[in-house]
Design goal:
The chain is α/β, with parallel strands linked by helices. It contains six helices and 17 strands. It is globular and about 55 Å long.
Amino acid sequence: MNQSRAYFAPRRLGHANLFVGNYERAFEFYNDVVGFNEVYRQPDNMASFVSNGNTYHDLGLTDVRSRYAAPNQAPDIWHLAFEVETEDDLVRGYRQSIDDGLQYSFTADHDAAHSVYLHDPEGNMVEVYADVVRDWWTVRHGIIIKEKPEWVPGVTNVPSKERNYPIDPAIKVVDQAVFHAKKITNVAIVTKDFAAMFRFYRDRVGLKPIVGTEDSPYALLNGTAGHGDFALFRPQPGLKPGMHHVGFQVWDEADLERSLALLPAKGIKVERDVRHAARRCVSIRDPDGLLLQFHVDRDWTPATIATMDVETALYAI
């Protein structure tokens, strides 16, 4: 790469989109167990988008039979998305990287946001986006069936310098749900080539390492307003490369204990219960076997996080 700084400066992990075995069944689980509301649905794409007010969607649940899925697509991550400050920042980073000879898969206009898409060194799709509508719910709600208009960064429109992302949004609670997820906070990936992935997310996407280096057994990278947005792990026996888990913040430890007490009645097994000085975490699997982490931060500082051994970190960051 021919640049002295990263092309983007993401604020945070904005959302993750998952391929699921059945999007209607997935929505029922993510509503009843995880505690998210459906913001909008795209029946033509076989997808449900859920959030509690944190952003226009924390998760996209896209059916493996969707037109966007590859043949014989298995449940897995589709893409992870990082939010930047403004559309102007997004377009400047995009244009600079294009000038440096880098390529993108496509760009998109999502009504509430403008996005650019690229693949990391191991083929995972990454979205970098900026909110372009402050009141996102006015354009993203209910049933949406429409073709997306073409958006060419810096050509279709003059990029906005407004900060349109939600600031202190009112978070809704699905009272009857097992967990009371506030928002998505993190994704963890098991790598094939740890150093290459570390450099990509640091140098091209623009995340900042807060724990670990490209020589460490694991690393945690952050956006400017994030909360430990993205974790990378070296290959390990018994772990296939790719997404390890998606993480969600809940309200407090009492709320987490309430959730644990409700799991047996739902027939849901706790995969891992981590009690570390940095974070308390509980992990379960969704109907497709995807691992979900629910956490409450304790002393969530780099120095305390770095005391985790690899096995603990794998389920806690």
